[in-house]
Every structure is written in C-alpha cells, then in structure tokens.
Amino acid sequence: MNGPGWTLIGGGICLFGDDARPVKIRPLWWTTTPVAGRHLGRREPGGSLPVSGITHDEASAIAARLDGRLPRSAEWEWMAAGSGRRRFPWGDTGWRPSCAALLPSGHDNAVPVGTHPQGATPDGVLDVAGNVWEWTASPVMGTGFVVRGGSYASPLLYAQTTFLNAAPAELRSAGIGVRVVRDA
Prior knowledge:
By secondary structure, the chain is an alpha+beta fold. It has a single domain (6-183), classed as paralog of FGE (formylglycine-generating enzyme). Helix content is 10%, strand content 22%. It contains two helices and nine strands; from the N terminus they run ββββααβββββ. A four-stranded mixed β-sheet has the order 7-6-5-8.
C-alpha cells in the first residue's frame, strides 16, 4: 500500500466560525491530500482520485485503517484558515483555476489529488478547497455531519475557510471524500 503523506499542523486557538468563537486546537498530523484510492492499495485506473461516494461510517473506517480519525470541524478550520484566519486555504487572494477544482473551473468530476499545488495552505496541505467535500466528526441535528471544503461542483463561496455544510451520515456522493488526522 502506498500510504498518504502526512503534514504536521501546530496547535493554537482557532477563532471558529463566523462568530470567531475561540476553540483550543492541539497539534495534529493531517493527510497532505484527501485520501486517494492508491492510499488504500487500489491500483489505477482511478488510484489518484480521491476516495468518494462513501458514507460517514465508511469514512470513519478508512480513517481508522490509516491509524487516525476524522477531524472535528474546528480542527479542519484551524488547518485551513490558520491563526490569521485566511479567507481561502491559499491566502486572501481570490480564486484562480490553478488553486482549486471548483464549479467555475468546469470540472465534471473530481480530479487527481494534488493537481492544484498553488492552492496549498502555507503548511503544504493540498486540496483543502474544492475537489471533494471532506467528512468531519462534528455531528449536526438529526443524523448528519459537517462537511468542509467544497467540491468540484461547488461555487467559490464554499471554498472559504469558514464555510461549512452538512450531509446525512448515510449519503454517498461523488463529491464527498475523507481527510484523516492523527494526534501529534
């Protein structure tokens, strides 16, 4: 198995959400990209594409298989926005097609992970915005969970680091994948 790369993100106080509520975040190791088929031992074709079409339970199982867990929504926002509360994972400058696979770029499907290096966070985490939404461990009312980051079918607004959405836990969508964290 060709496992994912890992990037260490230091801890701090995340000013979480639109109301900038302070949340303490511990240092975490993050998969550098969303989990791709090759990270789970799948061979081409599609081995470089993000794993998608998985339920929340399946995403949690993938995280456990990689000796990790799903991030909480505040942890995800800290990784994406940093202490300076960047507007987008790459910074405060506007979107360009080289930054993320989003609806304006015209993709009909997810693209191979790591395709948009100009959209990396300053720490080098890739595909934080666009390509596939990412399941989190944060529940919402009912049986859903928060998803973050937007997908190839999302407008630019969804790529902002404070934007969050929710999906039913049992949903299987080509636009929802998984990123894994480990305690540092």
